[in-house]
C-alpha cells in the first residue's frame, strides 16, 4: 500500500532497550519513549510479533502505557507475513507516532515482518514522519542491519561462536546485543567484532536504553550502561585459527556510556558540550546517519 505521510520537523528517534525495563514504578525509559513520540496524546502501536505469548505481552505494555497517560494505544498482533502485508495493519503503523516492538525471539520477528509492507512503512515513519521507534530485548537486536541471530555466552570469545542475520536496518554498521552485563555477553560481542571488524558492537544493559536522534546525537537513560566495542583498528589471527579457538584481539577499543551520558555531533552541539574524541565522534556519525529509505 502507498501512503503520503506528512513531513515533520522531528529528526526521528530510536529507543533501543536492553530488556527488563521498569514497567511498574517510575517507568523512566517508557516515559521517555512516550515523550519522544509526542506525549500522552500520541498514537502508540505495540508490535508483539517476536513473542509466542503476544496477548500477555500486550497486557503488560497496555497497562504500562496506560499508566503513563497514553489514551491512543493499540495492539498490532502479527503471526504471519500475510498479517504484515495486510493493508489495515500497515495503516496502523502509517498513523502511529510511536511504534514499540516487544521482546521474544528476534529471528521470529524478522521472519514475520522483514521485507514486508509493514517493514517499509516503519522506515517511512522514522525517516519521513519523524516518528519514534522503540524496541526491547529482541526488539532491540532487530533494529540494526546486521542482527545477532544466535551465539554462545562463554567467558572468552571464540571463532564461530556466533551467527548474524539480516535485521530491520534502522541503523547500519553496528550489531546490538541486549541483557548485556547481566548475562555476561562481552565475550559474545567480541566474537562478533573479531569476525566482522567493520561492525561496531553495542551492548545494552537491562533497564537501560540507548536513544538515537537521527542526524544529531545520542543519550543513555535507565539504570545501567551501554558498552561499545570497536575493532576497526585491531589486529587478529582469527582467520588462521581452528573453530572454537580463542582469537588474539589486539588494539580493540571499548567505550562505556553510563546512564546520563549525552553526546551530540558538533554541528548540533548544545552549549557547553564537552570535547569529543575522534573515536566517539565516528561512532555518533555511524549511528545517527540519516540513511535513505530502503
UniProtKB/TrEMBL annotation:
Reaction(s) this enzyme catalyzes, per UniProt: [L-4-(L-arginin-2-N-yl)aspartate](n) + H2O = [L-4-(L-arginin-2-N-yl)aspartate](n-1) + L-4-(L-arginin-2-N-yl)aspartate
Pfam families hit by this protein: Peptidase_S51
Keywords: Carboxypeptidase, Hydrolase, Protease, Serine protease
Entry's Gene Ontology molecular function annotations: carboxypeptidase activity; peptidyl-dipeptidase activity
The EC number(s) this enzyme carries: 3.4.15.6
Enzyme class, first EC level, given as a word: hydrolase
Classification via InterPro entries: Class_I_gatase-like, Peptidase_S51, Peptidase_S51_cyanophycinase
Record-stated family: Belongs to the peptidase S51 family.
Biological role: Exopeptidase that catalyzes the hydrolytic cleavage of multi-L-arginyl-poly-L-aspartic acid (cyanophycin; a water-insoluble reserve polymer) into aspartate-arginine dipeptides.
Name of the protein described by the UniProt record: Cyanophycinase
